[in-house]
Amino acid sequence: MIQEVSGDILLSQAQVMAHGIAPGDHFDQGLALAVRERWPAMVKDFRHYCHQSSPKPGEIWSWAGPQVHIVNLFTQDPAPSSAALPGKAQVKYLRSCLEKLSQLAESERFRSIALPKVGTGVGKLEWSEVRGLIEEKLKGLSIPVFVYAKYVPGQKAEERGA
Fold first, then answer.
1. Helix (H, G, I), strand (E, B) or coil at 104
2. So what's the pLDDT on residue 103?
3. 39-97 pLDDT, tens per residue?
4. How many domains, the chain?
5. Angstrom distances, CA of residue 156 to CA of 25, 38, 44, 57, 160
């Protein structure tokens, strides 16, 4: 069951948080920056993962730390150089990521997921299109999926069933 909520996703009570990034992302913009500041160990592990695995857009990478589980959705093209910014998010990548997130949620038996309007900030996708993809790819899950449709810093969202 998908619920749109208002609040700060970093305060979510959901078991898993998912967000969009690029392969090799620097975590220096948008939600990724806040994630880097809050969970620097994840970013260190991410860098190691990227060097070992060379992830591609459309894939996902799951990381669990103390009291947090984050699924990174590779929704953007990687930056063309270390000094450049990643490319924009692409619908085909988001579609693939959401399919993989749904499969992971079922296989790992997630209890709940929180995600932002993934791909609409730094990624520049249109919310109407992203909303439709989230509905299409995650509606079959029997767990709460909290979509943070409005960011309110420092405010916990009302997450029914988290």
1. helix
2. 98
3. 999 999 999 999 999 999 999 999 999 889 999 999 999 988 888 889 999 999 999 99
4. 1
5. 27, 16, 27, 31, 12
pLDDT tens per residue across span 96-153: 999 999 999 999 999 999 999 999 998 999 999 999 999 999 999 999 999 999 999 9
User: Both tokens of residue 38?
Assistant: 């809050």
> What whole-number distance in Å separates Cα of residue 82 and Cα of residue 12?
32
- Going by their DSSP bridges, the two strands 68-74 and 60-65 should be labelled as antiparallel
Q: Provide the domain limits for residue 33.
A: 2-150
Q: How far apart are CA 91 and CA 44, in angstroms?
A: 28
Strand order of the β-sheet with 2-7 is 2-7, 145-151, 113-116, 16-21, 68-74, 60-65
Domain membership flag for residue 158: no
Residue 157 located in a structural domain: no
Distances (CA, A) of 65 to 40, 148, 154: 10, 22, 22
